[in-house]
Design a protein that fits this description.
elongated
């Protein structure tokens, strides 16, 4: 499974967003409303705050676990490492070094113009490509 949620701006607080977190079972698509079936179980809340005046740039996250926390847990701060891009414009696409052998195998197959499938993909995980 994986955690999933939608962030909404917090009223009267700048640079802060908050949302509920749900635990989605493996293969389950995000829940957008009643037409997507029963809503997933809410397991907590998250709050994200950007710290634009920090150098290097940073964000803080706080969580509140359902049925365990009465208030927000201590914030956890994330900062850029030295030498990383410091402005908001993306200068080049990030390089991804795949380490999962299943993904590396699919990448090599795609380079050869073939698509291989183990048949074990979760719903929505299979790569979709347009052929000419």
């Amino acid at each position: 499974g994986r955690l999933h949620g939608w962030l909404d701006p917090v009223v009267n607080e700048s640079n802060t967003w908050q949302g509920s977190l749900a635990l989605l079972p493996a293969g389950r698509q995000p829940w957008y409303g009643p037409s997507f079936g029963e809503p997933p179980e809410i397991v907590g809340s998250i709050q994200v705050r950007t710290l634009p005046d920090e150098n290097p740039a940073a964000i803080e996250t706080r969580i509140r676990v359902k049925d365990e926390d009465e208030d927000w847990q201590k914030p956890v701060r994330f900062q850029r490492k030295d030498g990383e891009q410091h402005d908001s414009t993306l200068k080049s696409a990030p390089k991804i070094n795949w380490t999962d052998s299943k993904i590396v195998g699919e990448k090599k197959s795609a380079e050869n113009g073939k698509e291989e499938s183990s048949g074990k993909e979760e719903s929505g995980d299979k790569k979709r490509t347009r052929t000419a």
